[in-house]
Amino acid sequence: MADFLYVFRGGGYQQLSPEQMQKHMQAWGNWIGELSKRGQYKGGDPLEAGGKQVKGKKKTVVDGPFAEAKDLVGGYLLVTADNLDDAAELARGCPILEVDGAVEVRPIRKM
């Protein structure tokens, strides 16, 4: 088994009613619960909206991230899977896809 990072981007959450948002959050809980039962969930959390960036050789600290809503990273998960194709297949169950978001699936290199 190898480790993978899921990076969640975008999603039309602002268009959801409170009831729809509650159902959506339940779907997240169910999906993560299934990954946990199979021993494939290793951790992860949603991210706060604001933050800082440290940039360049001068190590300048600026407010951020500032990106279009479709590109904003909303959270991450760490999972295990047999290979990249299997990790991508697991990501197909992610609730963010139901609100036009995206899941970036990245293998984690062992150092």
Supply database-style keywords.
alpha+beta, 111 residues, single chain, 4-stranded antiparallel sheet, 25% helix, Alpha-Beta Plaits
Please give a structural write-up:
- It is a single chain.
- The chain is an alpha+beta fold.
- It is 25% helix and 37% strand.
- It contains two helices and six strands, in the order E-H-E-E-E-E-H-E.
- A hairpin with a 4-residue loop joins strand 3 (51-55) and strand 4.
- The chain is flat.
- The mean pLDDT is 91.
In CATH terms, what is the fold-level topology? Alpha-Beta Plaits
CATH class: Alpha Beta
Instruction: Compute the separation of the termini in Å.
Output: 16 Å
Q: What does the average pLDDT come to? A: 91
- Tell me, briefly, the overall form: flat
DSSP, total strands: 6
List the helices and strands and how they pair.
Blueprint: E1 2-10, H1 18-37, E2 41-46, E3 51-55, E4 60-64, E5 73-81, H2 84-91, E6 101-107
Summarize this structure briefly.
The chain has 111 residues and is of the alpha+beta class.
